Structure formats: structure tokens, C-alpha cells
Amino acid sequence: MFKHVSTALTFCLRLRATPKYSGLARGFASRNPRITPDRKVTWDAVSADPRPPWVYTASLGLRLVLVPSALLYAVFFADFGENEHVFMPPRRWLERQKAAFFTLSPAEKALSERAVDTTPPPPKPTTEERA
Known about the structure:
By secondary structure, the protein is mainly α. The protein has a domain at 53-117. The chain is 56% helix and 5% strand. It has 6 helices and 2 strands. The protein has helices at residues 5-14, 22-29, 53-76, 88-102, 106-117, 127-130; strands at residues 33-35, 41-43. It has a two-stranded antiparallel sheet. Residues 15-24 have low confidence and may be disordered.
């Protein structure tokens, strides 16, 4: 259609809405416009959003919680089958971290075995307790 990019760009820049409808498109896309008889959009300063302010706070809070939660679930827990997929390296990293957290180092094992060996044996019952 166009032989040069500059010709296409010039064509797009020359596209304009007709003056009769120039304010209407923006008026319908905005929150609360008022179209004056000369077809210009003015904003009503008194009008406000009918939603209470807590709706915005709740919406922000839900976005901050739900989006990262969904991403973490998809990366670490969702079942994508047994084949190799893009989330396997983070899952292997998580498994290594869990294994390192729940296993004892050799020094900790030796310390725990020595602590078990040094506990005194339970006292033997005396002859009075047997009777």
C-alpha cells in the first residue's frame, strides 16, 4: 500500500476526526464528561467516583497478594507433567534448599550422637520398689 515508511507515517498523522464528533470520542471514554453545545468536553468538578475509597485499598491489597501467590504456585507447585519444563530448575533449587535445611551436617550429627551417648542410664529399681 505504502512504498515508504515516511509516507505511511504522514498518512497516519493526517488522520483527524471531523470537528463535529471530535469531543464525543473522548467524552464516552472518560469517567464523567459533560459535552457542551459547542461539542467540547468539560469536566464536572463536583462529580466523583461512586465507589468508596476502601474499594481501591482492597483492590491494591488483593493484587499485591494474589498475583505473587499465583506466580509462586505456578513456578513451584503446579503440575505440568513429568517431562522437563521451564520451571524445573527453580523446583530443583527449592528441593536442594529443603534438603539442606532438614539434614544435619557431619559436625551436627557427631554432636547429637555424643549428646545421646552421655545421657545417664535410668536408675535400677531397688528391692523395696519391687515388693
